[in-house]
Amino acid sequence: MKTYQAFPVVLFALACLTACSGRSPQPKYYLLGEEQPVVVPLPGNRPAIVLHQFSLPSYLDRDSLVLRSDGSVQVVVAEYHLWAEPLNKAAPRLLEETMRPILQEKGLNLLWRDTADADLLVDVALLRLDGAPGSSAAISARWRIVDSTGVLLAQGLFTRETDAGDSHASMVRALSRLLADFGRALVQASGEACERRAAQSRDGTGKKKKDR
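Predicted structure:
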């Protein structure tokens, strides 16, 4: 009799153990970049560069980190490794934080999607921002720079890879460094585009026209 009374108790204990052992892992959250000091726009009528459009491929537009190694065509969605901030906001934020202080050293202001006072507009299409722990992290992005009338001044493709480290956290840090490298490349291209735009207001020799 006691054996039959104990049997449901044993089943209940086994059910509890099964439920506990099958519990999902706690998700981990990751943030691109590091906190940057606030940079106040330069006073006066300074040339303004605007981060105008930013797009992500659909495979990256999700909450989870996407893993891909060595150019593989297969991707893995890291279900329990999540972005703390949507990638379509975090990536342009990091570009902005990287570009603004360097541009200000050149006497240029950087704005975010405010085209009213824009001298140059920068459009970015992120093609790849992924990697895998124990392998590499990679970025690929197309960019273009146009003036306020839509005239194309420069365009290009930025690609780079680096060691991803041995953890998801180290991979995110590597992706942050790659985005910062891309931001610095955009600064250089923007500076050159400003010079090219200024040259367009001169004559064919690149010198200012003389008064006649």
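Summary: Strands lie at 28-30, 48-55, 64-67, 76-83, 109-112, 120-131, 136-147, 152-163.
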